[in-house]
């Protein structure tokens, strides 16, 4: 069987990879922030220890890492924060990625197909009507925060990597003052490869791209391309190597915890745009978030956790009743009782031509606490959004307000049914229609030429494995094979794992004489045939692929920061 490999080709970059970073202290970040100590090279300082020296002497991983395309390595290093990130980082060989052939796909990686996202600014009077724009510099999701700062007329920390997208802005003296509301809409999983798979399902977004400014080739900018890290990129104008939100789980001292454990911002190390802006108004500006999970809190930031902050609105809808952390954020009581969920479920029930409690053969939710992988929640989130904006008076006065929302159904459906599915094709139009209805609502309730809309996504979607000839890397089988090779147990060796790497028990490594470099080198020799679990039937067309490597690079995460560049 011959596979049509649709994965986007890597950029051609000649020469040797030379990656360097300079992270300076933000002049606007308060004393509560805890930046890492910096080495002269600009990378997080790495104490020279026998363990690190031994890692550097085991050289197979180093050669493989330096052979990576520089942009992929740069995106991965941007995602690293010492003491929080996995102790062993790996990058699968494209097109392979983690998941299983039947039910699970993932979207974590440095490759263009998961990194490239729409980045659209729309707002007559404030945003130029340029259509698609292709800049001669890298554009990332971190560019939104400094762009908003320009619209608000405030300063923004110049040391952060985000750069204002001035190419989209109407000259200041031609704008009708500051926008009364800047609203950011994120389609979770709505990256460019998702849109390209179903090009006829988003006519409204296409119209806003044409009538506003749409930045071609924009990327999320760091790896892993997962929800908590990327939403913090958006909110702070920086990357995980600066803001400290590195993944869904991350290390905190001697334990692994969720990056937003307890809906708390304690792991966010720098201020977001909202944190910087709100105090300049005496906290008169209204700041709000409506999203499914606390992973999205990086868009608004610290709330009352920092000096001068207040309890911004943060409504998290994953559970019923909805939640927030009342110490740092505010959840209006009325939002718990917004009617219409049952009606929205019934609308989706009828959308497939049947009225049987199912959507495309799948059970629909009976209440708000279950069944997120369908468009009913998109419809209901619109109700919640309009209620919050109206009741709280967003955009009602001359003090500009900020609101952020994440529509997560595209991502939920991708994990449940894959990219090339009828379910995905049927889901995207609901997010697209919601965008158009939001624009109409803004014109009626905030006023024409008084608002700006930003639309983007936090990542693309992993394709159907067989469409691109990708092996679905079995994480459990991989961990078992590593444990067997090094004569230990999975539960003993690994503290946690994600498709970006392993958090390992260092005490176990020392006791058994195992180095992280040895594990990295094991990964470099790991092939498809090694990853076939006993109960797995190899799909048609994969038998001739059994000798293919599964990892293009793997390295002991801290040791790589001891390398000044890849030429030494």
Which key phrases capture this entry?
Alkaline Phosphatase, subunit A, 568 residues, 20 strands, 4-stranded antiparallel sheet, 9-stranded mixed sheet, disordered N terminus, 2 domains, alpha/beta, 20 helices
Architecture overview:
The chain has a 9-stranded mixed β-sheet. A 4-stranded antiparallel β-sheet has the order 18-19-1-20. It has 2 domains: 50-106 and 471-560, no CATH class; 112-335 and 399-461, Alkaline Phosphatase, subunit A, CATH 3.40.720. The model is unreliable at 1-28 and 30-48 (pLDDT under 50). It starts with 49 loop residues before the first helix and ends in an 8-residue tail after the last helix. The protein has helices spanning 50-57, 60-66, 70-78, 112-115, 144-152, 192-197, 203-211, 227-236, 240-243, 273-277, 341-351, 376-392, 409-417, 422-445, 465-468, 475-485, 490-493, 506-512, 516-524, 557-560; strands spanning 88-92, 97-100, 104-105, 119-122, 131-133, 181-187, 213-215, 249-252, 255-258, 287-291, 312-316, 329-330, 358-359, 362-363, 401-407, 451-457, 472-473, 494-498, 501-504, 551-556. The protein has 568 residues and is of the alpha/beta class. Helix 11 packs antiparallel against helix 12, helix 12 (376-392) packs parallel to helix 14 (422-445) and helix 13 packs antiparallel against helix 14.
How far apart lie the N and C ends? 43 Å
What structural category do the secondary elements indicate? alpha/beta
Number of strands: 20
Gyration radius (Cα, Å) is: 23 Å
Q: Please mark out the parts with pLDDT under 50 across 5 or more consecutive residues, or reply none.
A: 1-28, 30-48
CATH C-level category of the largest domain: Alpha Beta
What would you call the shape?
globular
- The quaternary structure here is single chain
CATH-scheme architecture of the largest domain: 3-Layer(aba) Sandwich
Q: Total domains, how many? A: 2
Largest sheet: 9 strands, mixed
Put simply, the count of helices is 20
CATH superfamily of the largest domain: Alkaline Phosphatase, subunit A
Beta-strand percentage range: 5-15%
Strand order of the largest sheet: 5-7-4-16-6-15-10-11-12
The name of the CATH topology of the largest domain is Alkaline Phosphatase, subunit A
- The chain-level mean pLDDT equals 90
| Helical residue percent band | 25-40%
